[in-house]
Amino acid sequence: MRIDKFLAHTGFGTRAEVKKLLKLKAVKVDNQVVRDGKIKINPQTQVVTVYDETAVYREYVYFMMNKPQNYLSATSDRQYQTVIDLLAEKDRLLDVVPAGRLDRDTEGLMLLTNDGKLVHDIISPKKDIYKRYLVHLTGELTQDSVKKLEQGIEILDGKNETFMTKPAKVKIIDKKANLTRVEIEITEGKFHQVKRMFAHIGCKVVYLKRLAIGNLVLDESLSLGAYRELMDSELETLKIGKD
């Protein structure tokens, strides 16, 4: 790993700030001053210090974000801003990616990490990790329709091919005038899946927000676009680092 990337990864600043530290001869590797940010080191075997403070390397980082609308769940895009654009520069250097996707107009819980295994576990339907959403609907949602969703329905995916959804968990919160608020839990993440599921039963999604991934629940104190690192207790709910 390059020393400049390592220093950014361990919290010593942006690229510009790290470059300044190197120029000031503040960085040492195994007690030898290093000034070239391109030099590669082994974080597992070498000791890096900044003004004699040891840099502690963390292999994986995990951020919880309250995703706002109009941002893509991607690392880059030519047309739209992405959730990565909401990160501070020092955090963008950590090479995190979204663990699963949310539609551009969908808000709520987004997990960003560089832990590839966790990302795979979260997005794999075979792992049966439920994602819980708050949905605002127009149209008539009947108990018959709810049963269909709970049993699994056949809908089109993003490639105009049909597939049978896995059983969902549906809870009607309330009905006001022509608006129904519902919580739904699904283990899949096909293109516009929640919207397509409700469209199949004659309802239109007018607002969608992800509330939870498995036992990881959105911190509602996070404003839209804000993020923070996961707490140890939250990491435990995801069983991170365990087989």
How would you characterize the overall build of this protein?
The chain is α+β, with helices and mostly antiparallel strands. It starts with a helix and ends in a 6-residue tail after the last helix. It has helices spanning 3-9, 15-23, 89-92, 116-123, 143-151, 193-200, 232-237, and strands at 27-29, 32-33, 48-50, 53-54, 62-67, 97-98, 107-113, 131-138, 154-156, 162-164, 169-176, 179-186, 204-213, 216-217, 227-229. The protein folds into three domains: 3-54, RNA-binding S4 domain (Structural Genomics Hypothetical 15.5 Kd Protein In mrcA-pckA Intergenic Region, Chain A, Roll), CATH 3.10.290; 62-123 and 222-237, Pseudouridine synthase I, catalytic domain, N-terminal subdomain (Alpha-Beta Plaits); 130-213, Alpha-Beta Plaits. It has seven helices and 15 strands. The model has no long low-confidence stretch (mean pLDDT 91). The radius of gyration is 22 Å and the shape is elongated.
CA distance, first residue to last residue: 26 Å
Major β-sheet annotation: 9 strands, mixed
How many whole angstroms does the radius of gyration measure? Answer: 22 Å
The CATH architecture of the largest domain can be given as: 2-Layer Sandwich
Work out the helicity level: 10-25%
Order of helices and strands: HHEEEEEHEEHEHEEEEHEEEH
Task: Name the CATH class of the largest domain.
Answer: Alpha Beta
**Shape label:** elongated
CATH structural fold name of the largest domain: Alpha-Beta Plaits
Give the CATH superfamily of the largest domain.
Alpha-L RNA-binding motif
The total count of helices amounts to 7
User: What is the arithmetic mean of pLDDT?
Assistant: 91
Poorly predicted runs of 5 or more residues? none
Count of individual domains: 3
The fraction of residues assigned to DSSP E strands is: 25-35%
Number of strands: 15
Class from secondary-structure proportions? alpha+beta
